[in-house]
Amino acid sequence: MKSFKNFLLKISESLKNTFSKKPKISLGENTKSSLYAILAGLIFGFILMLIFVPQDAFHGLWIIFTGAFQDGNESMGNVLLFAAPIIVTGLSVGFAFKTGLFNIGATGQLTVGSFVAIYIGVRWGFLPGHLHWIVAVLGAILAGAIWGFIPGLLKALFNVHEVVATIMLNYIAMYLVNWGVMSTVFDGLSKSKSVLESAIIPKMGLQWLFPDSSVTGGFFLAVIAVIIIYIVLEKTTFGYQLKAVGHNKEAARYAGINEKKAIISSMTIAGALSGLAGAIVYLTGSGAHLVVQNLLLSEGFDGIAVALLGLSHPIGVLLSGLFLGYIKNSGFYLQRLAFDTEVIKIIISTIIYFSALSMLFKKGFKNPFKKNKKTGGEK
Amino acid sequence: MSFLDTLYSIINMSLLVAIPLMIVALAGMFSERSGVVNIALEGIMTFGAFFAIFFMSLIYKSSGLNGQSLFFIGIFIAIIIGMLFSLLHAYASVNMSANQIISATALNMFAPAFAIFLAKAITGYSKIQFPNNSFFIRSIPILSDIPVLGPILFSNTFITIYIGIAILIVSYITIYKTRFGLRLRSCGEYPQAADAAGINVKKIRYLGVVISGALGGLGGLFYIVPITGIYDATFSANGYGFLALAVLISGQWKPFRILLFSLLFGFFSKISNMTSMIPFLSNMNIPGEILSIIPYIVTIIVLIFTSKNSQGPKAAGEPYDAGKR
Q: Does A345 touch chain B (CB under 8 A)?
């Protein structure tokens, strides 16, 4: 009996230790501010609906909350379908944040990744069996990595601000991919051809849970990415170096960390993640096609929201990605009420704005994305 | 078309893009010189253009008013809306010490979504028609007869050009020759010192951001009006808010250098529309998409050369912390 009591004591102590050692995981107050931001976004969206379409406002709000259950297993599967790519772009943005970089170029990296995935998916039917989709995914990752490497290099060598460089690369990607689609995999009307059956990411068991949904194993790829990034950031020297550069460039340099290498590798990995997201979006059988239009793809920008709400922590990103996937799926059902998906975009941008205002919710809250100046006052 | 006519119309077209670009870059200058990075310009442009066009189309439909008087009403609305919208950014970055890039990104996402939502809720469409051709100035008597300057500045143009030039001059004087300009610059360089000298840093930064909002909204309207008579909010400002930021950085936060680089970018961004006029380009048969990426690539190249010794305001992007005095 006594030994059992000791055992329990030991466990509780070790639990206490693990949590006090890593204040970033015991999210506590920070999680609260994310939740408040979400609440503020939903309230704002609801007020807008009340003003402009009062007769449908309550029904609209109801759909936002219950979207996943509108069509049984299909809509539940679709939550995962929507969540998978934005979890990965959120991971991409969050990973760059850890090194003090703002990867607003996730959308461009996703665009080039999508194109390469579709190109391989349509044209490389000679690849046998499972190799086809695997090569398509790897191609997308590589393309995204190159698109992330460029701004990393520009930042490290020429001090070009990554925000401006990645924005320019977003537009370059958009036009290049439009041209690429039209000259290689065009369906003759407005969009890319459908990828071959063998290039679609297998469902990996999800067909038993959600038989009517077109959700693919892309969700598992997203979860694997979350695990890998978690290990890299929390358990490796490399991840520690990246975070050190993000916290204080000068101190990191003084400690012998190659700051330029860290910037370049951080952006490259962020790019690779966004490229993977592109593959996850377009290697599905649900009629996802790259449409030729002068419009940046929204998944990249959703990634910013996901990273912010998830406080750039891989597990947080996974959860907030699921949440955003949930309300994006609801946005699909909102269209039945003659609402447009714009309501969801408005809610998401309001959430981002309020998470930037996190000071509002908790005085003295330390913004994890700001360059660290003072560390006193927080325990 | 003679060679000279071609040249004049190329300059004309470039100017119609370069001037709004310059106005928006100047908008960014006012904000960054006060110490607040404003990448919300894209969203502010969208909002300014959308609301101005929205109201102009309403007024046109109800009263039939058109021509320059309608345009002036639009200009007024664009300025007011730009100021109001930028207040959100000012509040986040000045009062709340928020991360300025994140708050601005939120505004950039919000603006087109809200504009489309509003347009659809009220009119049922996301596209708005307005009588932009009645704003067109074919030629100004006497002035258009001046050689060289006449065809470039005083014919086949919009009033946007003259307002833009006036804004440039006023901005230069404000920044370098007035007490307010000095205070603005000091808040962007070393706000703690400015505070110690008795300057209200918060107030100056608010003013900087709001001026930037006014010019940003105006620039958005000026960018759309010469291009099309049907505005579709889906395309926001086509990335020109971001291009203007690049112009600002390349121009090293100085008004006349900003003019220079916006002329350069104006020319390159219109090159895809002008291939038919330039024989050697149309012979090469370059796809339009490739020509469209030229301004962005030029931006990156210019940034490579100018970023190393960047002389941006030192405190831009940092929330003011009086405790660090």
A: yes
